[in-house]
């Protein structure tokens, strides 16, 4: 009887070991396959960001990142689509407006670029009395004014207007 119990325990322990080893092998295999698949997504920034969009299509930052990659590849029209999608997803993020304005300027669609920059400018914090209130200003906020001023200065009849925009933020 004792021998039967010992034999049964030994069989049970062997079964558990085999099952554990099989589970570990299965886990390592699936993770290895997933790693190899994921490595193809890391081939370039573009493939990485596009794979991120498959998982999270409502991430405005990923749309901006894909747009920047496309812009660097001189695919400006396609980049503009991603920037506009980023603006739709995050209408309070100035960066999408800056990116779209830059591409529109490059495409010589100056009126649309000015409209985008002015929308971004209108989103910035409004302060009536600077002596009584603190305002958080980021580099993106400042870039809005520089980009708008640069765009306006392309037209020599609007140089004074460009100067007025450029010097709006004096500290």
From TrEMBL:
TPR repeat segments: 60-93, 94-127
InterPro entries named in the record: TPR-like_helical_dom_sf, TPR_2, TPR_rpt
Alphabetic keyword roster: Repeat, TPR repeat
UniProt superkingdom: Eukaryota
Pfam families assigned to the protein according to its UniProt record, in alphabetical order: TPR_2, TPR_7
Keyword Repeat: yes
SMART domains xref list: TPR
Record-linked SUPFAM superfamilies: TPR-like (SSF48452)
Protein name, per record: Transmembrane and TPR repeat-containing protein CG4050-like
Organism, as annotated: Limulus polyphemus
Name of the gene: LOC111084066
């Amino acid at each position: 009887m004792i021998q039967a119990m010992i034999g049964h325990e030994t069989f049970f322990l062997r079964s558990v070991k085999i099952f554990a080893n099989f589970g570990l092998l299965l886990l390592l295999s699936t993770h290895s396959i997933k790693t190899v698949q994921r490595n193809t997504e890391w081939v370039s920034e573009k493939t990485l960001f596009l794979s991120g969009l498959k998982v999270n299509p409502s991430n405005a930052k990923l749309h901006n990142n894909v747009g920047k990659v496309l812009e660097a590849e001189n695919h400006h029209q396609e980049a503009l689509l991603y920037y506009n999608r980023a603006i739709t997803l995050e209408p309070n993020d100035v960066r999408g407006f800056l990116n779209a304005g830059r591409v529109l300027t490059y495409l010589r669609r100056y009126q649309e670029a000015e409209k985008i920059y002015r929308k971004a400018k209108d989103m910035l914090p409004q302060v009536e009395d600077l002596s009584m209130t603190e305002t958080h200003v980021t580099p993106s906020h400042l870039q809005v004014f520089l980009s708008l001023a640069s765009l306006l200065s392309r037209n020599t009849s609007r140089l004074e207007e460009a100067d007025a925009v450029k010097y709006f933020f004096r500290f």
